[in-house]
Structures are given as structure tokens and as C-alpha cells.
């Protein structure tokens, strides 16, 4: 990523410890699909997941609700 202040190493912010669990999400590495869609309401998240070919609820911690889904393959 390039900025007017010079090059920014975004890789330095990525946690690579396999034992790490994000405290706000309550999930670890490799649990969430690499492409995401966010919605503003945890109940709407369930409605969006229901429109997909396959869905599995991963976690619901406070306002963070997550589904892994497949849509159009």
C-alpha cells in the first residue's frame, strides 16, 4: 500500500500465531472465509446467509455475528 507519507507495511499488523483468538470476534485464524460481506445488524446477517447456497453460523459475540457461506459456487 502506498501513501503520501511513504510505503506502509500492512503485513506487520497481521497476527500469524495459530493460537491467537481475536477477543472481539472470539474466533481464531482460518475460521472466517477470506472474502467477507458486512451488514450493520446481526439479525440481517442471518437473512443474508439464508439467501446463499450454503451457510454455517461461525460465531455470535455481542454485535459480531458471523456466517461462512457459499454463493453461486
Structure description:
The chain is mostly beta strands and 73 residues long. The chain has one domain. The protein contains one helix and six strands, in the order ββββαββ. It has one helix at residues 42-50, and strands at residues 2-3, 6-7, 21-22, 27-28, 54-61, 64-70. The longest helix is centred in the middle third of the chain and has 9 residues, at 42-50. The protein is globular, with a radius of gyration of 15 Å. It starts with a strand and ends with a strand.
Can you summarize this structure?
The protein has 73 residues and is mainly β. 12% of the residues lie in helices and 32% in strands. The protein has a two-stranded antiparallel sheet. A two-stranded antiparallel ribbon has the order 3-4.
Amino acid at each position: 500500500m502506498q501513501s503520501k507519507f511513504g510505503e506502509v507495511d500492512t503485513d506487520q499488523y497481521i497476527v500469524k500465531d495459530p493460537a491467537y483468538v481475536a477477543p472481539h470476534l472470539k474466533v481464531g485464524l482460518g475460521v472466517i472465509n477470506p472474502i467477507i460481506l458486512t451488514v450493520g445488524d446481526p439479525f440481517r446477517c442471518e437473512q443474508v446467509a439464508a439467501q446463499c447456497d450454503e451457510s454455517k453460523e461461525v460465531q455470535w459475540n455481542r454485535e459480531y455475528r458471523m456466517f461462512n457461506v457459499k454463493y453461486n459456487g
